[in-house]
């Protein structure tokens, strides 16, 4: 695509020298697992997110699962989450042996519909998983009223705030992803668990290391889910630039808002009151979305869809017994959403070209 959905090359160019220097040190010491740089990144990211504890893991899905397991979630339990999310949120619940219980989203933001949560709760509910979608926080404070543990899916919202509080500290424990395309992305997979609880942090640290507090001691059954030292070097270099990159994303989102304000048939994203988003994605809604997407691709515009199929309509979760129409807002949103190119380095000229192609596509 002439204008990609995300430009990882532009971001790499800014950190290439620093990463090369850091990798050279790792290669010299050969501390590929659990090196000093991992601990340094955990401390820096915890400080950035304003929480006392960060535990890095192998990927974002593991982060959700280990956060749930640290809370004691397992077979026979239920966890409430939105149908409008990437499948990993539900997948992590299922991997603990618990059952994902889905609720609908709010049309204008795509975030979890708090009014639907009360009816979904049962005596078996062990946790609620709000998803901070597209870079803005879900209304976690409203979910607190239910008196259940809150596990934040913060994979798309590194640096976002709600009422002045960074995501990761809004609930009891949070999970994030360092997949390359995230606002803070590694050069491969990676993830982290954030929490204010020393006990939950200790539990996740134990679980990620084969359930082992010391070599060859295994008091509990654990997992092998650790962040490589080489990835910690990349993430540390990018973390030092993340606030500036997020601010550049906000500027680009504001430019889109202005350019698209008077375009018929285009529904613009809405920011929930109290949120300072980081615009991981800029998601609009248009009729005849698939035709519009095809037209943009033909024009060299790297648009995308996040996400085309709600969780309840995927084959992976057919056993939940849902049918089309069960979550009508999520289904309607899934048929119209369209992600436009957005990355810190996107230029005004590029955005103007995207909008011109979009205007032509929607007719």
TrEMBL record:
<protein>
    <submittedName>
        <fullName>DegT/DnrJ/EryC1/StrS family aminotransferase</fullName>
    </submittedName>
</protein>
<dbReference type="InterPro" id="IPR015424">
    <property type="entry name" value="PyrdxlP-dep_Trfase"/>
</dbReference>
<dbReference type="InterPro" id="IPR015421">
    <property type="entry name" value="PyrdxlP-dep_Trfase_major"/>
</dbReference>
<dbReference type="InterPro" id="IPR015422">
    <property type="entry name" value="PyrdxlP-dep_Trfase_small"/>
</dbReference>
<dbReference type="Pfam" id="PF01041">
    <property type="entry name" value="DegT_DnrJ_EryC1"/>
</dbReference>
<keyword id="KW-0663">Pyridoxal phosphate</keyword>
<keyword id="KW-0032">Aminotransferase</keyword>
<keyword id="KW-0808">Transferase</keyword>
<dbReference type="GO" id="GO:0008483">
    <property type="term" value="F:transaminase activity"/>
</dbReference>
<comment type="similarity">
    <text>Belongs to the DegT/DnrJ/EryC1 family.</text>
</comment>
<dbReference type="InterPro" id="IPR000653">
    <property type="entry name" value="DegT/StrS_aminotransferase"/>
</dbReference>
């Amino acid at each position: 695509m002439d204008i990609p959905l995300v430009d990882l090359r532009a971001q790499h160019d800014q950190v290439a020298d620093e990463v090369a220097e850091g990798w050279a040190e790792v290669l010299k010491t050969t501390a590929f697992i659990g090196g000093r740089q991992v601990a340094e990144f955990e401390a820096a990211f915890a400080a950035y997110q304003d929480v006392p504890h960060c535990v890095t893991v192998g990927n974002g899905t593991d982060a959700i699962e280990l956060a749930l397991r640290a809370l004691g979630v397992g077979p026979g339990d239920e966890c409430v989450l939105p149908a409008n999310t990437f499948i990993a949120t539900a997948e992590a619940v299922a991997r603990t042996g618990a059952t994902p219980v889905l609720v609908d989203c709010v049309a204008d933001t795509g975030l979890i519909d708090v009014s639907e949560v009360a009816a979904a709760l049962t005596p078996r509910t062990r946790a609620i998983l709000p998803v901070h979608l597209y870079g803005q926080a879900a209304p976690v404070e409203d979910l607190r009223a239910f008196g259940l543990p809150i596990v934040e899916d913060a994979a798309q919202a590194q640096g976002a705030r709600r009422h002045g509080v960074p995501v990761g500290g809004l609930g009891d424990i949070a999970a994030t992803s360092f997949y390359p395309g995230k606002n803070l992305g590694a050069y491969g997979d990676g993830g982290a668990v954030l929490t204010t609880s020393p006990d939950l942090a200790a539990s996740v640290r134990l679980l990620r290391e084969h359930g082992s507090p010391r070599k060859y001691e295994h008091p509990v059954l654990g997992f092998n889910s650790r962040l490589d030292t080489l990835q910690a070097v990349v993430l540390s270099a990018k973390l030092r630039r993340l606030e500036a990159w997020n601010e550049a994303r906000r500027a680009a989102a504001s430019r889109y808002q202005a350019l698209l304000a008077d375009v018929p048939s285009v529904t613009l994203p809405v920011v929930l009151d109290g949120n300072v988003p980081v615009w991981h994605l800029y998601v609009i809604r248009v009729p005849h979305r698939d035709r519009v997407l095809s037209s943009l691709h033909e024009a060299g515009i790297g648009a995308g869809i996040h996400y085309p199929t709600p969780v309840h309509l995927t084959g992976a979760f057919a056993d939940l017994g849902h049918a089309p129409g069960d979550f009508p807002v999520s289904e309607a949103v899934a048929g119209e959403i369209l992600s436009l190119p957005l990355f810190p380095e996107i230029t005004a000229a590029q955005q103007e070209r995207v909008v011109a192609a979009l205007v032509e596509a929607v007719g």
